[in-house]
């Protein structure tokens, strides 16, 4: 009844959750069993805390979560910031000008809050899927302090175009595809692998004792840092190639299969 790993890092969307945003009984039971055997379960997600903490609670767990692709590490119980990578506001101006001039929808995030300039009914429904409740704010009058992430979203084709254009920009801030319909911008040093490394050092856990499971390009640094990095079956080919193993898809309880095969001794 032992474990091969002391810390298990889990991505949320496309990994823990099915495409319909449901956590199945098999996933919940297997993750809780892994925790009861002694593993520290850490969610590592592009979501902010308001979207990630309900997932942790649905699993029946508490603890530390890595949010905003590693830009903010949060204690879920106290909703306090353990560490964050702040962006310099002036470095965001070019991205915001781009979005406004091309009508690309975006939100800005501090570690704990999300801001938008406007909100359609369709967007409100999208945010509700992710358990997010953005505040409407006139961002042209001045940006909030301590921003950690800019997210833009649209169709896959729109995001392909944005990604291609931004790839040629100076990398003072880093843009990364966090899903087919999302691109995130944050501090150049922020990523899931770096945040996981910081947390492991704080807790005195060797990377060889860490298992990580993810499905998208923003998970690669985490999969590569962990002693065992597992890509979901629904991952793009580049993510699978970066992993040590590939599990079933998120719609086939791939996390449960991976934990039973690799984490349980």
From TrEMBL:
InterPro entries: Cof, HAD-like_sf, HAD-SF_hydro_IIB, HAD_sf. SUPFAM superfamilies: HAD-like. GO terms for cellular component: cytosol. One of its GO terms (molecular function) is magnesium ion binding. NCBIfam families: Cof-subfamily, HAD-SF-IIB. This is HAD family phosphatase.
């Amino acid at each position: 009844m032992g474990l091969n790993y002391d810390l298990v890092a889990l991505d949320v969307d496309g990994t823990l959750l099915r495409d319909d945003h449901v956590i199945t009984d098999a996933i919940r039971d297997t993750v809780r069993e892994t925790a009861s055997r002694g593993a520290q379960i850490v969610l590592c997600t592009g979501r902010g805390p308001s979207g990630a903490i309900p997932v942790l609670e649905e699993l029946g767990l508490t603890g530390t979560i890595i949010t905003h692709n590693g830009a903010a590490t949060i204690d879920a119980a106290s909703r306090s910031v353990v560490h964050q990578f702040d962006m310099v506001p002036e470095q965001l101006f070019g991205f915001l000008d781009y979005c406004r001039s091309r009508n690309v929808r975006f939100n800005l995030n501090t570690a704990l809050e999300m801001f938008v300039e406007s909100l359609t009914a369709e967007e409100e429904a999208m945010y509700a899927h992710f358990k997010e409740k953005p505040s409407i704010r006139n961002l042209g009058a001045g940006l909030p302090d301590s921003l950690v992430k800019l997210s833009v979203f649209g169709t896959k084709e729109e995001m392909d175009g944005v990604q291609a254009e931004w790839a040629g920009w100076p990398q003072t801030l880093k843009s990364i595809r966090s899903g087919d319909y999302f691109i995130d911008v944050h501090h150049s040093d922020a990523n899931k692998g770096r945040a996981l490394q910081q947390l492991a050092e704080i807790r005195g856990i060797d990377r060889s004792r860490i298992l990580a499971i993810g499905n998208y390009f923003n998970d690669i640094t985490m999969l590569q840092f962990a002693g065992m990095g597992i890509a979901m079956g629904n991952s793009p080919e580049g993510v699978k190639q970066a992993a040590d193993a590939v599990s079933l898809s998120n719609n086939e309880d791939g996390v449960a299969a991976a934990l039973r095969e690799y984490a349980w001794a």
